[in-house]
Amino acid sequence: MLSDGSESLLRLAEMEGRGRALVASQPLRAGQIVLKDSPILVYSSLPLIKPGSSASASYCDNCFRTLLPSANVMPCPSCSHHHLFCSPNCLTMATAASHSPWVCQALSRLCDSPLISQPLERQVQARFLIAAYNLVLISPSCFQVLLSLQGQGSPSDASAVQFLHFIVSSLCPPPSLSLSIELTAALLAKDKLNAFGLMEPISLQQDGRRSVRAYGIYPKASFFNHDCLPNACRFDYLDAAPDQNTDIIVRMIHDVPQGREICLSYFPVNLNFSTRQKRLAEDYGFNCDCDRCKVEANWSDNEADFIDDNGNVEAEEEEEFMDEDSDEQMIASDSEHGVEAGNTNFPHAYFFFRYMCSRENCWGTLAPLPPSDGAPSKVLECNVCGNLKNDEYVR
Ligand SMILES: C[S@@+](CC[C@H](N)C(=O)[O-])C[C@H]1O[C@@H](n2cnc3c(N)ncnc32)[C@H](O)[C@@H]1O
């Protein structure tokens, strides 16, 4: 199930109340790469008819690299809806896979349908469905993997499911697959629970907001459960990696012992308690009772304000944990990763100070670069903006 050597670092386990989970099968070190994963599908997060303004970035419709003005961009010769590729190689690869003749025709028909007046979310869901049904044609085994992921569909999504099912089955039914509304519902649920967002370059951030350029389904990384204080985080290098640029890697944020579950945070760690609880219940269908939530559930509104809605640790608290005496206590609570270890009511302040990116409006998480020759790296990398920072705790 887990390949590339990651099977010796992580094992798949069934955990009560959490489903499948990835657990450290040996002690893991800060910065260690515990998983490399390739997507079974990647799809654009842009509207079906892409904005033509020069302010909006354009991405290769195969590898999702940013298309630079100087690039030798190749349009799809068969469709009129702006599918662009960064090289002849990407065009050839796409024509045989993600932009197959059926996808090309299906997207063209959707661009001429009532779907284009629907909200962006609906259009992107349609893009996912087309990519998912295309898997049946280009890689039936990957389609089976997609079906095996968590997610069954819920009544709250019924109207979106009905609409998308009607549009796809009437305008562009996939060959050799009998569509059912149950299949559409299950696929959309799998997308919602498992898709990873691949962000736009930080240089395109507008008003402090950065959008997703594409979504990918990563079959092994889909087994990571959530923790509001994650011990690992994932990185992608869409514009930087010379090949297989849509692969992701997961690196440890700090050391963990054998047997510990390895978790990611499903969203930026700066969100406050009530926002996190709401998102996890509505989008992922569970109530989080991680160590951080156990502590924050008991905070009064006043204490909750230690972290404002933007994730800033407020001055008084920051001073407190930068104090020499409290420093050790917070290191201790972090290494235990439990609420018992600290006797402050903000035991995870240390995590924010050390592992949250300080760049304005970034909210990324920092993980050390991989250890070299067994020694921990002194450099932390942000998984959102890519900034590198010296880790003052590593001497
Ligand atoms: C991406 S999947 C993670 C793998 C999943 N456990 C499985 O069995 O395939 C996301 C789903 O896992 C479950 N999950 C993730 N984190 C959890 C947590 N901290 N507590 C309980 N369930 C969790 C929820 O059902 C969530 O919708």
The SSE order reads: EEEEEEHHHHHHEEEEEEHHHHHHEEE
Main structural class: alpha+beta
* Structural shape: globular
Largest sheet: 3 strands, antiparallel
Report what the structure shows.
The chain is an alpha+beta fold and 395 residues long. The protein has a domain at 41-198. The chain is built from twelve helices and 15 strands. It has helices at 88-96, 101-111, 120-138, 140-148, 158-171, 181-194, 273-284, 291-296, 301-304, 315-322, 324-336, 349-355, and strands at residues 10-15, 19-24, 33-37, 41-44, 74-75, 84-85, 196-199, 212-217, 225-226, 232-236, 248-252, 263-264, 366-368, 379-382, 388-390. Strands 3-11-10 form a three-stranded antiparallel sheet, with no helix packed on it. A three-stranded antiparallel sheet has the order 4-8-7. Strands 13-14-15 form a three-stranded antiparallel sheet, with no helix packed on it. Strand 5 (74-75) and strand 6 (84-85) form a beta hairpin. Helix 3 crosses helix 6. The chain starts with 9 loop residues before the first strand and ends in a 5-residue tail after the last strand. The model is unreliable at 315-343 (pLDDT under 50). It binds S-adenosylmethionine. S-adenosylmethionine is lined by residues 17-21, 150, 193-194, 222-223, 225-226, 284-286, 288. It comes from Durio zibethinus (Durian). This is Histone-lysine N-methyltransferase ASHR2.
